[in-house]
């Protein structure tokens, strides 16, 4: 076996270090994004209003995860795509329908997956042997629909920019 030169050893070391760093950044970033909103959400409490010329900001806490409605999602890869419609009622997944399936395999391979989503209240379903990519497309479609339902239900801020003046 030939001896590696110092330049090659240095290059390999830098490459491995960069890959490790990229993986660390990728896995740590979502944690920070998930933790941050929970710190900023507070329940509003009524406070007496005093004359003020500054803006009043009230943050309201939303207790449910999803907003009621039907949301569409799609998942795709090189073998085709799967589209779904996910219905949310009272913060629960009540129905999932496959609205379009253009994968290499028949939709019948993944017809049992919508019921698993309703039963588990999650996009985490069993992978169908022989239709792994179709299953992944289905999971991605459900995750996209649930993300839309979450984004429709995010807490909101109301801002009063008017000034209050008066005589006491």
From TrEMBL:
Family annotation (InterPro entries): FMN-bd
Disordered: annotated span: 30-61
Polar residues composition-biased segments: 36-57
Domain named FMN-binding: residues: 75-149
Domain of life: Bacteria
One Pfam family in the UniProt entry: FMN_bind
Entries under Gene3D superfamilies matching the protein: 3.90.1010.20
The protein's name: FMN-binding protein
């Amino acid at each position: 076996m030939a001896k590696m030169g110092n330049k090659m050893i240095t290059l390999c070391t830098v490459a491995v270090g960069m890959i490790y760093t990229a993986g660390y950044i990728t896995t740590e970033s979502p944690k920070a994004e998930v933790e941050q909103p929970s710190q900023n959400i507070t329940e509003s409490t009524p406070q007496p209003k005093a004359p003020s010329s500054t803006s009043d900001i009230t943050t309201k806490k939303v207790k449910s995860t999803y907003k009621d409605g039907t949301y569409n999602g799609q998942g795709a890869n090189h073998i085709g795509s799967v589209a779904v419609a996910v219905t949310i009622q009272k913060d629960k997944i009540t129905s999932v329908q496959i609205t379009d399936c253009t994968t290499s395999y028949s939709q019948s391979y993944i017809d049992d997956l919508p019921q698993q989503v309703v039963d588990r209240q999650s996009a985490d379903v069993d992978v169908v042997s022989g239709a792994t990519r179709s299953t992944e497309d289905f999971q991605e479609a459900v995750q996209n629909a649930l993300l839309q339902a979450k984004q429709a239900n995010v807490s909101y801020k109301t801002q009063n920019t008017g000034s209050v003046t008066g005589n006491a």
